[in-house]
Specification:
399 residues, alpha/beta, Lyase, Ornithine Decarboxylase, Chain A, domain 1, eight-stranded mixed β-sheet, 11 helices, disordered N terminus, binds pyridoxal-5'-phosphate
Amino acid sequence: MPYSSGIAGVYEPPPLPIGAVRAHAAQGGTPTPYLLCDIDIVELKVQRLRDALPGVTPYYAMKANPDVRVIERLKSLGVHFEVASIHELEMLANCGVDPREVIFSNPIKPLEAIRRAWEMGVTTMAVDDLDEIAKIGRVSGDIRMYLRMETSNTGSDWPLTGKFGSSISEAMEIIDHCADRGLKLIGLTFHVGSQCRNLDNWHTGIEGAQLLFSRMRERGLAPSLLNMGGGFPIQHTRPIPTMAEIGHTVQKSLAGLDPGIQVIAEPGRYLVGDSCWMVTRVVGTATRKGRRWLYLDIGAFTGLAETLEKFDYELLSDREGRLTPMTVAGPSCDTADVLFEEKMLPEDLEAGDFVYIPNAGAYTTAYASTFNGFPLPGMVLLERSGLASRGKVEQTTAG
Ligand SMILES: Cc1ncc(COP(=O)(O)O)c(C=O)c1O
């Protein structure tokens, strides 16, 4: 299992042993595909984030996994929330989250969503364009705005540039516009790209923000918020920086930041991704033009949407046959529903076998649809002992 972070003494992610996953699958009773979640890992990841980024307040990006049990655990730990839509905000409100502790980070929002969020108590919202600022102004001049700026997403497995984020020159224009009219522009945000494996992106983002903060101050605005967005990665098949390394880079880059500026982050994937395994089964196998194909009961439309952008997952099974390259596809009739090419898998895999996908807790169930009539994967919580015993596991395996 590629669980080593590469830094001596640090294990990332905390291991949820495959043995527990196999045992759960073997019990039967839960239709595949499903997520098996060890919710204690979510708690451990919150601790990791707080240790690495002291003084940075986490706002969970619930789009990664909006399961109520995840929300409730995070709420109990004092984590705040970031939403992209009114539906997400209403889910949080139903879980007893105070909307005043929620930020609305979608830079382009329907007018009705701005109005409803404001009425519910959300005070702080993202913008990245003058048109959106005008829309917000139609609801209330008291809404506090933070400006999403463009930054490098190089080396991020799921880049988030282009669609949102103002360039430095556009940001300058927005700052001038807000200063001239006395609008409540209170801060800046950026996103380094999801599953960001390049430390430089955090440095570049913070450097850009420092530049724009200077401009805000020159223009008489008093910045009070830096939102670093998400992007903190989890272990899949490619090397990642650890949270400790990211924390070190961020702390260094933040040196000199005005102490009056509150720093927050919006982790999504990092908090939930490695808390879950996807348990799936082989639907069938085939040989086409001399190549082996494996069809799973999970596909791009039922949870593995990120594979459409070549996002790679590890696949494990109970077979021990010789490894052979296989094309792995989902169950639907759509030819886009091909998950992996040339995946090295045991040649003796056959219909009915379990396949286990580690670190599948983020952007899987959240993306799933019932396309072609295939059911949505559910999420089952694994009953396990608490954090104390996990701490021991980490220490003994890390060395
Ligand atoms: C505005 C915003 N914040 C936070 C996130 C969460 O990012 P991640 O899951 O990479 O931490 C996203 C992801 O799309 C986002 O769009």
